[in-house]
Every structure is written in C-alpha cells, then in structure tokens.
Amino acid sequence: MSQSHEFIRFAVETGVLKFGEFKTKAGRLSPYFFNAGLFNDGASLGRLAGFYADRMLEAEAAGAALPFDMLYGPAYKGIALAASMAVALASRGRNMPFAFNRKEVKDHGEGGTVIGAPLAGRVVIVDDVISAGTSVGQSVTLIEAHGAQPAAVVIALDRMERGGDAVHVTGTSAVEEVRERYGLPVYAIATLQDLLDCLESMQHSEPAHAAHRARIADYRSRFGS
Q: Which architecture characterizes domain 3-223 according to CATH?
C-alpha cells in the first residue's frame, strides 16, 4: 500500500476525514471534510507526524526538494504539526530545529512573535491544508524578514480545488497559486486523486465507499483542478 493510501485510511479510521455534506468557506457543498484538528491525542498526532516526516525525506532524497534546515509552523494548527514533525524526524536520525509564531506580539519577557529556534537557512513551512494561500504568504513574509529562505511547504491533503465560490470558479487551485506566486514547491501527503483511488480500492470491502467516491468525483468535475 502506498504512503498516501495508508494515510487516507488512517484519516478515515480516526474520523479526521468524514463523508457527507459540508459547507466550505467558499459556500460550496463538499461531499467530504478533512479536519486535522481531530488528530488530538498522542498516538494519532505521532503517526501523523511520521507521515509528514517521511514525505519530506522522500522528496529530499529524490532530489525534488532542496536540503532543508528547519521547520516553521504557522499559528495555530501548524504549531503542533511542526513540533511533532521535528520529533518524528529526530527519530529517523534527522534532528532538526523548529519554530512557530504567536499571533499577538509579546511586549514582555523575550518579546517578539517567533518562538523556538531562530529562523535561519532553508525553512519548510508545515501546515494542514492550503485553502487560500493567505497563511503561506504571511509565513513567507515573516521568514524572509528574519533573513531566512522559505524552501517548501508540506501539507497533509491537497484538495486540488480551484478558487472562487459555488457559482464562479477560478483557473487555478490554492496550491497551484502558491507555487506560482511564491515559487515554492508544495508537497502533500495525499491529494484528492489519491483519495479517489483509495476509495475505489476500499469499495470492494466497504460498499458505502462507492457512493462516497461517486459524489467526490462529481464535485471534482465541477471544482477540481
């Protein structure tokens, strides 16, 4: 089983990936919903971090990604993701510093907005999904302001969904826009296509997944990239 399919099965088993009808921020009715905030215990977060670590090490080993020097997690979901990914990398023999930001500037103690290791070298931004690219843009600005270089973005799921709303659809997805606007590679543990492929293989043992797959395929035909 591929890493992406293993991850999707894990997300379904933990209830992080749900099927039904969910309204997105864009006003679309999505037949699935991915909520990384539900990786909310030590075992599930640790396993998730392993997927993140393996995805970046795989990209680096294949030459798709430049060697990277540290991790950065944007508040708030990125904080736990970057910290746990650093632990997972250390267990794989790659001890790596990490940092994250606070949304409010602290005017006492150490002050500032960045917590953890000093931002330096080639920095990988760790997040759950890319919805509009706003968080990535803010992260890029902060990293560059500290004299470091944004190197890549790693996320859990690429929805492969174009922008716009329920009626109007733009030409590119949020991930594609990040690649074009910031010149950064984006690595996902799994994509919407991986989800469709995985559901196809799962429907033989779990027939309900055939209906889920059909609805997701229809959604992709309307809004997917």
A: 3-Layer(aba) Sandwich (3.40)
* C-beta atoms surrounding 162 within 10 Å: 19
Using a 10 angstrom Cβ sphere, with 0-12 exposed, 13-18 middle and 19 or more buried, the burial of residue 21 is exposed
pTM above 0.90, yes or no: yes
SS3 131: coil
CB neighbourhood size of 138 (10 A): 15
DSSP state of 6: H
- Sign of the Cα torsion 87, 92, 95, 97 reads negative
Sequence ranges of the domains in the chain: 3-223
Please identify every residue annotated as catalytic. Answer: 106, 108
Per-residue pLDDT of the chain (225 residues; tens, 9 = 90+): 799 999 999 999 999 999 999 998 889 999 999 999 999 999 999 999 999 999 999 998 888 777 899 999 999 899 999 999 999 999 999 999 999 998 766 555 455 789 999 999 999 999 999 877 778 999 999 999 999 999 999 999 999 998 888 888 888 898 999 999 999 999 999 999 999 999 999 887 788 899 999 999 999 999 988
